[in-house]
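Fill-in record for GH36-type glycosyl hydrolase domain-containing protein.
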Amino acid sequence: MIRASEDNEYYELSSPTILPKASGFLWNEQMMIHMNCRGYAVAQFMQPEPAKYSYAPNLEAKTFMQPEQPYYAHHPGRFVYVKDEENGELFSAPYEPVRNPPDHYTFAVGKHNIVWTIEKNGIAIEMTLSLPKDEPMELWRVKVTNLSAARRSISIYPYFTIGYMSWMNQSGEYKEALQGIVATAVTPYQKYQDYAKIKHLKDKTFLLADHAPASWEVNQEAFEGEGGISSPSALKSKRLAQGEARYETPVAAMQYSLDLDAGEEREYRFVFGPARSEREIAEIRRELFLDTDAAGEDGFVRAEREYAQYIAEGRGSIEISTPDADLDNLVNHWLPRQMYYHGQTNRLTTDPQTRNYLQDNMGMSYLKPQTARAAFLTALSQQEASGAMPDGIILHEAAELKYINQVPHTDHCVWLPICLSTYLDETDDYSILDEEVSYAGGLETGPVHEHIDRAVQWLLHERDERGLNYINQGDWCDPMNMVGYRGQGVSGWLTIATAYACMVWADISERSGRTDTAKTFRQAAEETNALVNQYFWDGEWYARGITDDNVVFGISSDKEGRIFINPQGWALLSGAADEEKRQKLMKSVTEQLETPYGVEKLAPSYTAMREDVGRVTQKHPGTAENGAVYNHAAAFYIYGLYAVGEQDDAYRLLRKMLPGPDIEDIIRRGQLPVFIPNYYRGAYKQFPQTAGRSSHLFNTGTVPWVYRCLMDGLFGLQGCREGLQVKPQLPSGWQEATVKRSFRGAELQIEMKRESGVAAIEVYLDGGLAEDGVLKELKPGKQYQVLVKIPAEAVTI
């Protein structure tokens, strides 16, 4: 029922009901669409703030996406009704809204398109969704085939939700000159000053067709009639009524009447999206349907091809072949795609959280280093002269800090050296450290290394009298907003992370010749680690923080929120945990936080408000930050495990991020393994019946950290100043693995094999032993053969 296609370009689902929320997503730098296997859609575009063109039935908040999306009958969707004109039988593709079970069904999520194939009563419907490279619109193909041996008379009705557009003004009608339906609205406003903002918005939604329809309907209520959306009254007539919407909810429904010979097929193409004016819509129609080149290819075909090429540019820098075929599929095809989406679009916001922006571009360091470089410089240009980083990075002149970015958090500085280190590992571009960048306000400039010096010094300064980092209204955990809002509470995690940031920056400083700076920050890391052990070690694990009232939390005496994952993983990274503490905290994580679906963020989940911790305790137990398998935090911990050589535990937890391989596990999670979600439900011991469910949110800082786990940990192919350090940590059950690695313009074919008689890892470059396992003097454009011999170990099952 669930499988990768033979060419691994698609992941396929053969039932619309076994995973009813299974989905895929497409994007360009102006829009995103999240398509459900049953035809429901969540789409958004930028103008420059996020906006809709396919609306829910009532007013909705302008939020990007919701976890565990609650689909419902009138949820925005893209459907095709099919009616047999001889007997009146009705079904719909891809499944909603008629829900007539198909004879055959395939939902295929591809990298640059999504394809459904539905067969029912001898009629096949193939629906294909793609996007253009640059514009906010959907490109649809609908192919109809008569599979039966007799001539068939049918009508198909492409049905695209427009929905409740505006309480001020909304309407819709068919425009013959455009060969399409156009709905018009006015974005609601009340202050006259807002008129200047809304008058240029794309407040029209259009559906264009390459073939003129036999009829149409633009009034949703008239279309549904007494039958509702599952059995519309309008379909009982020979022809749709050609209605329009006048301050009524519009819909884009067209009718095509077909007489098909046995084996005959027809194809129809549609463009659906937002526009500012009918003139703009006419231009879109001309470019996509009417203008052809010398080869007879029109703009629609060119747009599909250019989009496929655009997506292909996000190729990862490793391609693997291991004993785990499902991991291979994720790493080779889907993980870099998800990472590319984050880095190219900035999650389709004009003010990404600083931590997200930096970590997403940490990922882009592997895919498009120049994009990452520019992003780091952009972020630093908005840093205060004090060293403080803003809560969000402004990416558009009309943007402002919104929502969570108006709440002060204290962790943003910590990500600068940590994320920049990956860029330096990949590129060896230490010249960036001398790049002159202005501070916020433009009154002062300084080299990048000075900016980061100030950022780390800011972390060391924003502390209480004990030397512990203030949390204010949150650190990496956004909703931990009441620990320190009165100015006294501190973060155990951030204090530990500050020690790690000091270590990372000390290493970078030393490698760039700034030895005195390196010494200063290395000493700060040691001192901070000592404070961590003095104030946060609880005997078996590290505490999460200390409240405004000087109450330590995340400790053994807490009934809820006894243990948090983040302090444990980062204590492995910072060196705060010695060998004895490592073993204790790892044992505690395994016993209290690990589930069949990964490692929980905290446990037990909070079941009631704890007013000295904050709104994280009000979230439903096992969701999001309140005890979910929050994959971003899990990735931190896995990276920490690799940092201390715990490769088997690291791989076990890494593998749990991916649904399957058992069908029961995939069904429990409810998603295809084409992206890593923000979280899976946790509270495994408290509410086991819902544990494991996917949030279906593909916006997550998890993916660059998973890529780092693969590069620096599992396959041990981390860049350094001298070249590529090869130090794999294959799980003990693997006897071999093959990796293609792109690195600084060179291409390496790497074979890793366990061999008896090998006492330590040996690395051979084109037959010659590489000293210390470092591949040096690699030339751009050249290909290399690398053999890695690993000491043989007992195979574990």
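KEY FINDING: Residues 175 and 181 are 6 Å apart (CA to CA).
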